[in-house]
TrEMBL record:
Source taxon at top rank: Bacteria
Naturally occurring in which organism (per UniProt): Spongiivirga citrea
Residues annotated as signal peptide: 1-22
Keywords: Signal
Identification of the protein by name: Cytochrome c domain-containing protein
Amino acid sequence: MNPKRFLNRLVTLSLIASTVFLYNCNKDDDNPEEMQEGETPTFTADIQGIMAGNCTGCHASTPTNGAPMSLVTYNQVVDAVNNRNLVSRINSTTAPMPQTGRMNATLRQTIEDWVNAGMPEN
Ligand code: HEC
């Protein structure tokens, strides 16, 4: 192969390589959006379980241990988000819920994502 032809090939190949590279970068940028749509938390699938595992020990159907309300049904949890600062209490370092200490960041983020998505029930 003569040097000129070799150079032409090289240029062509690098053009293809950078096109593929740029295309993949674009795809990565798009992906998070697509994933989020598929992963919107719902009350039934995600939130109910978090409440049952961390909150209803006190915020039961009949609240115990001085808890002022229940966090069992969909409407009760929505009401606590809207009127009782549920999101700031689960993130509070001075008066956290549960009182024994904040839940891990993943669980708290799931609740926040659910609230930001408009609190879908199912
Ligand atoms: C060990 C018992 C206990 C657990 C577990 C518990 N709470 Fe509470 N919660 C209380 C008590 C007692 C109060 C009232 C005193 C206060 O506001 O700190 C309260 C208050 C609250 C309030 C404020 C209510 C208002 O009207 O001001 C919110 C919101 C709340 N809890 C949410 C939660 C959530 C969400 C969880 C689980 C992630 C949880 N709690 C777990 C006992 C508990």
